[in-house]
Amino acid sequence: KDEGYDVGSIPDDLNGDDIIEMIRSLDNPRAISAGAAAVNEIGEKRMEKLGGSVSASEVSPAQLRDWLTFPRSWGPTEWGPIPFLPDASILAQKVESQWGNLGNPSHLSVSGEGNYVVSGLQFGNVWIGVQPLLGVEGDPMRLLFERDLTPHPQYAAFYSWLQNGFEADAVLHFGTHGTVEWLPGSP
Question: CA angle at residue 140 from 23 to 149, to 5 degrees?
Answer without folding.
Answer: 115
